[in-house]
Amino acid sequence: MVRLTSELIDDSKQYINAVNDRELNLRGCKIPAIENLGGTRNQFDTIDFTDNDIRKLDNLPTLSRLRSLLFHNNRIQQIQPTIGNALPGLTMLILTNNNICELGDLEPLASLPKLEYLSLIGNPVVHKPQYRLFVIFKMPQVRVLDFKRVRLAERTAAKSMFKGSRGKALRKEVVKKSRLIEADEPQPVQTATLPPEDALRIKEAIASAKSLREVEQLQQMLQSGHIPGKSAAGNGAAPTGDDEAEMETEH
């Protein structure tokens, strides 16, 4: 593990990136925690923390210039409640492949007034049934979620689901927060009980697989919450043809 010190910040790559932002590259340093970011002296538009070992998105000083934060492939479980005060100008937050588990863990992001681009792909929370509509409801400023543009129909559906007394009751029911697991504490193995018919479908699909590639494809389907041979209707809404699978990079 490498501590994030002022010396590491000064020694790391600093450059003007492809979108003309001043960027600090802290990729792959095995950083376990955010600290000493005051050492950046608020001089960067983008900070890249990809491929580190960070568990908490916290301990953030006020960085009014910062517009983009990249946290691909970390272990983030918890987000600083006052993140909006610390990063008032943040427009892009990429949290792909982290360990955010509950809808309540996302609530601090609603305090980011200028957040427009958000990716949570690869976090357990994306498999929650109300995930996308909840994020759209709580963060109306977000325009692109998980590389798909937020549609007007989705905003309408989100308000219908979560607004009013019935919506408040639903939020109380589904919005939970995770207990943070410390670095030296083993993570519990989560198990799920499948209905007998789904278990049978899985066994039949595995038995009929004729190659390693087919087995790997089955594994990917199961990880994404899909049961072989079962209609996708129970696994969330299918994407529409007009969804844009792209993250805009202009600011």
UniProtKB/TrEMBL annotation:
GO molecular function annotations of the record: U2 snRNA binding
Record-linked Pfam families: LRR_9
Primary localization class, coarse: nucleus
Region feature Disordered, mapped onto this chain: 224-251
GO biological process: mRNA splicing, via spliceosome
Localization terms from the record: Nucleus
Acidic residues bias: start-end ranges: 241-251
Record's keyword terms, sorted: Leucine-rich repeat, Nucleus, Repeat
GO CC annotation: U2 snRNP
Family of the protein in this entry: Belongs to the U2 small nuclear ribonucleoprotein A family.
Protein name stated in the entry: Probable U2 small nuclear ribonucleoprotein A'
Source organism of this protein record: Plectus sambesii
